[in-house]
Write a structure and sequence with these properties.
The complex is a heterodimer. By secondary structure, chain A is mainly alpha-helical. Chain A is elongated. In chain B, the strands form three sheets. In chain B, strands 5, 6, 7, 8, 9 and 10 form a six-stranded antiparallel beta sheet that branches. Classes of the chains: A mainly alpha, B alpha+beta.
């Protein structure tokens, strides 16, 4: 027993005694320092356990009540003055609600709308929501760009405190310094190929580095890639080559010609597509030459008719031209023709066969080979971004890939195509493997918000027409309409009326009222940001 | 449509959107409610001052629209939708629409609304004649209905009998609680006599048995304290010190309870409250009123023991007193929404005896107004008030403080703010679980007034007063 030891006790000694048990190690808490010890001296003895507990209570409350201010703390450096206008209370409330739903598909779509609308109105996010916004920004690049546009001075200041936040924002240059996309590490005056980010980086980092270089200096990027081409792994060649599409020019042709003979099929396909998009390339001329041998105009029964013969390239020749192997169930010779046509510059047809895109597309094709020829032209219209051909092919209605062709056209015309596609859907064929709504969705996705005039009435009549026949595949179409239709009151009312006219058990009914709700949500959102 | 202002006349005082939002059971209900706060889905809407009600038909996914009626006096809600949330999104949407001026005043309720409103009026009339007073409902949940609400019929003889019965019940209860506390006291001393070593691994199984005996003795609050010990024992490094502290504070309570009759009044009341004696709202309302202009500084909901607890922090503009008003409701049920952060009200507050800062709102004088001047204090003054509060109630674990002109600060070399620094160079640490980012964001590194809860482990920020007004953190 050492209860008589005069050395001052501490709270830890009480803890030690409590751990062992006062039956084995009683303590005399009068040995506690200061006021606690003095008070403890007056505690009733008797039960050593009670004495220890009572002394501990004194010590605990003494410590809690006696807490002293910290000294020597460094204040956070103040953020710069905010130049922009911060969202008002109603807009802030709405953003808060959206952030609470972030992570759900619906919530994220609406959040993106809010951020875009705020950026367009020149409104900044309220400071109290910045931590949540920055957190959301760390989840996706697209969101980070949107958040960066409304974060303001305060947001950039706050982001410096956490590496993940700073990383998310740093990829996007602040407003005002509109130098385009993020630049890679400052360019050394020497050989860019020696940049460690390229020479030793991970695949994703190298890709980003090259993309950034291509955006600022296309020739340098091509040189860097050409130098290392032979030593790149197949999957890297496949990942890096498409970056040349940005700023594609005649000087890229030699590298693309090399890539066209690559061991890897995917690389050859990328090269062929890029070469086809390159005006005046040798590859295009060669393909055109071959293609023209198989397509000619004849006069049959007094009508100009396209007569098509099928090529029969040997495998080596096909490979040299970048023709990928025919998919299962497609005739090899038809496939070859389609690819030759796709790779040929469209102007060749106008010059050689006579007539413009509209005339040529309207010509009858002998032996029902129009599908092959038109598919080739459609592919060419897409890669060569030729609006006249895309328009002619869409008008003829002979090709299947409406969405890809519509993307070649300016937005207003895309809307007309989409409206026509909606009007053409009579609600049937819903059980087929590729329901019409799948194509509809792709066409509509290509029309940016707000959807121009012919689309709103088309959506409404489409909803009424599809009615009970609608399947789950139709729902994304309705959702997209909610996000992109003009959010004025009359469109909303039309949509509500359409929802009301649907039978109660129509699968689409809740989605249509949901889309109307989204329109009203968007309208209020815009009013608040004004 | 939304721009037209309803004529003023005898329109019921419209609520602010904040007031409506405060009624919502959760954030998703608010979002859903906002979607419906447009004229689009609504038809046959209307509002009357007498009875104070709003109603409307809301087009949902089905053929028949939902009938939504809100009795503004309760408030009470009725909606024919199948939602189990309370109020449902339709009621919230309707209230928001009304709040924005989108509901026209009418002479009398629509037929569908009238039936329900009449039945409510009839029920209210019945219960007034039965003598129940409606003052405390919903404002102070623990007390309501625990004791004695059944009393109160007219005959004085009956009343005396009822009073006697109530007193007898209270005595029996005190006796049982005394026995429970004595039992707990013995158990606590046994722990320390035999030693705490191994408590972290043993799972502290006998805790449940002790807690069960305390529940039998109607000492639920003590039982809760005992159950928490298991978590403290399992809290990792340093657990023996924390466990001893908890055991010591429980022993302090049992020892104080055994001497309850000898204790001076405010302290005895504190002990009774900490042990879990029920407090009747009538008794709290009978304490002297503290009239002031009360600024509502924070509102926060949390779930404890399957109840949603709403804590509202108030600061008296002239008295400088802080108060916390609690209300309770089962999840999904509405909570008291009359205290709106960022507003102020001229009212009488009655403080729970011995349980500062807890208070009940008594008489209100006039309509709520805008936030008045909020006088915060420096760190040293805040710590002095915390020490004073602990001296009165050593079991106190959280105390509201209002800190003036503080900046988020960090230890030198630390890259995460961990304290609040005042103009005198004094700082208070944030509690380990409190995240600093929202406070940092609203302050921008400039001095702001911060409303926080001081706890034994540090501060939990609740809200901040910035150039944009009061912001909840």
């Amino acid at each position: 027993m050492s209860g008589t030891d005069p050395a001052p006790l501490s709270f830890d000694d009480l803890v030690g005694a409590a751990l062992l048990g006062t039956a084995r190690r009683p303590v005399d808490p009068a040995g506690l320092p200061g006021a606690v010890g003095a008070s403890a001296a007056g505690l009733p003895g008797g039960d050593p356990a009670a004495l220890l507990l009572d002394a501990a209570a004194l010590a605990v409350v003494h410590e809690r009540a006696g807490v002293l201010p910290l000294r020597g703390q460094q204040p956070a450096p103040a953020a710069g003055e905010e130049a922009g206008r911060v969202a008002g209370p109603a807009a802030a409330d709405r953003l808060g609600g959206l952030l609470a739903r972030a992570g759900t598909q619906d919530g994220d779509a609406l959040l993106a709308l809010w951020l875009d609308a705020a950026a367009a109105a020149g409104v900044l996010a309220p400071p109290v929501l910045l931590p949540d916004l920055l957190e959301v920004a760390t989840r996706s690049r697209a969101t980070a760009a949107r958040v960066a546009a409304v974060a303001g001075e305060r947001g950039r200041w706050l982001a410096q405190w956490r590496p993940t936040w700073a990383g998310a924002l740093s990829r996007h240059t602040p407003l005002g310094t509109s130098s385009g996309t993020a630049a890679p590490a400052p360019r050394q005056p020497g050989d860019p190929a020696q940049d460690p980010a390229w020479a030793h980086g991970a695949p994703a980092g190298r890709r980003a580095w090259l993309a950034a270089l291509r955006a600022t200096d296309p020739a340098a990027a091509r040189e860097v890639l050409a130098t290392s081409w032979a030593s790149e792994r197949g999957e890297d060649r496949e990942a890096l080559l498409p970056l040349l599409r940005d700023g594609l020019g005649p000087d890229d042709e030699p590298l693309l010609e090399v890539a066209l003979r690559d061991r890897r099929a995917a690389v050859r396909e990328v090269a062929a597509a890029l070469l086809a998009a390159l005006p005046g390339s040798v590859h295009g001329r060669r393909s055109a030459e071959l293609a023209l041998r198989h397509v000619r105009v004849e006069r049959r029964r007094l009508r100009r008719t396209l007569v098509v013969t099928l090529p029969d390239l040997d495998p080596g020749e096909a490979r040299a031209l970048g023709v990928p192997p025919a998919p299962h169930g497609t005739g090899a010779r038809q496939w070859q023709l389609q690819h030759l046509v796709a790779a040929a510059p469209l102007a060749v047809w106008e010059d050689t066969l006579g007539g413009n895109a509209e005339d040529l597309v309207a010509l009858p094709v002998a032996d029902d080979l129009y599908a092959v020829l038109h598919a080739g032209w459609a592919e060419a219209a897409r890669t060569q971004q030729d609006a006249a051909w895309a328009r002619a092919l869409l008008a003829a209605g002979t090709t299947r890939d409406l969405a890809a062709l519509a993307l070649v056209l300016p937005p207003q015309e895309r809307a007309t195509v989409a409206a026509a596609a909606l009007d053409a859907d009579d609600g049937r064929d819903r059980r087929s493997r590729l329901p019409p709504s799948a194509e509809l969705l792709r066409v509509l996705s290509g029309v940016p918000a707000p959807w121009p005039e012919p689309l709103a009435p088309s959506v409404v009549t489409w909803v009424r027409r599809v009615r009970r026949a609608a399947v789950w595949y139709d729902r994304p179409v309705v959702h997209l309409a909610g996000l992109r239709l003009p959010c004025d009151e009359s469109t909303e009312a039309a949509l509500r009326a359409a929802a009301a006219a649907l039978p109660d058990d129509a699968p689409l009914a809740p989605d249509v009222s949901g889309a109307a709700d989204t329109l009203s949500f968007r309208r209020h959102m815009l009013e608040e940001l004004r | 449509m939304s721009g037209s202002l309803a004529s003023v006349g005898d329109v019921p005082q419209r609520w602010s959107p904040e007031q409506v939002v405060a009624l919502a059971p959760d954030a998703s209900s608010v979002a859903a409610g906002r979607k419906l706060a447009a004229a689009g889905p609504w038809s046959q809407t209307g509002a009357t001052a007498e009875p104070a009600a709003v109603w409307g038909l809301c087009k949902g996914s089905g053929k028949t629209p939902y009938q939504t009626i809100v009795d503004l006096t309760g408030p009470a809600y009725r909606c024919s939708c199948p939602s189990r949330k309370f109020p449902c999104k339709h009621a919230l949407g309707l209230l928001l629409l009304w709040s924005a001026g989108g509901v026209e005043e009418t002479a009398a309720p629509s037929d569908f609304a009238a039936a329900w409103l009449d039945s409510r009026a009839a029920k209210a009339a019945r219960s007034t004649t039965a003598g129940a007073d409606g003052t405390g409902t919903g404002v102070d949940g623990t007390s309501a209905g625990v004791d004695g609400t059944s009393a109160g019929a007219d005959g004085t003889g009956v009343q005396r009998d009822a009073e006697r019965a109530a007193r007898r019940r209270a005595e029996q209860r005190a006796e049982r609680m005394g026995a429970g506390a004595a039992d707990l006291d013995r158990w606590l001393r046994d722990r320390v006599r035999t030693g705490l070593a191994g408590a972290d691994r043993a799972g502290y199984g006998d805790v449940d048995a002790v807690a069960a005996r305390l529940v039998d003795a109607q000492a639920q609050v003590l039982a809760g304290g005992v159950r928490r010990l298991a978590g403290v024992a399992a809290s990792g490094d340093g657990w023996p010190g924390r466990l001893l502290a908890e055991l010591a504070l429980l022993r302090l309570l049992t020892a104080a309870h055994s001497r309850l009759a000898d204790l001076p009044e405010p302290l005895a009341a504190t002990v009774r409250a900490r042990v879990g004696y029920p407090v009747r709202t009538e008794d709290v309302l009978a304490t002297p009123a503290v009239r002031d202009r009360w600024n509502v500084l924070s509102l926060r909901d949390s779930t404890e023991d399957r109840l949603v607890v709403r804590r509202v922090v108030l600061l008296g503009e002239h008295t400088g007193r802080v108060a916390v008003v609690l209300s309770f409701a089962p999840p999904g049920q509405p909570l008291d929404a009359s205290l709106v952060p960022g507003r102020s009200l001229e009212a009488d507050l009655h403080f729970h005896p011995g349980s500062a800062p807890r208070a009940v709102v008594g008489a209100r004088h006039g309509e709520p107004g805008v936030l008045g001047a909020v006088a915060g204090a420096g760190v040293a003054a805040a710590l002095a008030s915390w020490a004073q509060a602990l001296a009165a109630d050593p079991w106190l674990t959280s105390w509201p403080v209002v800190l003036a002109a503080v900046v988020p600060a960090a230890d030198p070399g630390e890259d995460r703010p961990g304290s609040l620094l005042d103009e005198a160079g004094d700082a208070l640490p944030l509690a380990p679980g409190a995240e600093p980012w929202h406070l940092l964001a609203v302050s921008g590194g400039r001095p702001v007034t911060v409303v926080a809860e001081q706890t034994p482990l540090g501060l939990h920020p609740l809200s901040a007063l910035t150039e944009h007004g009061l912001v909840a953190l």
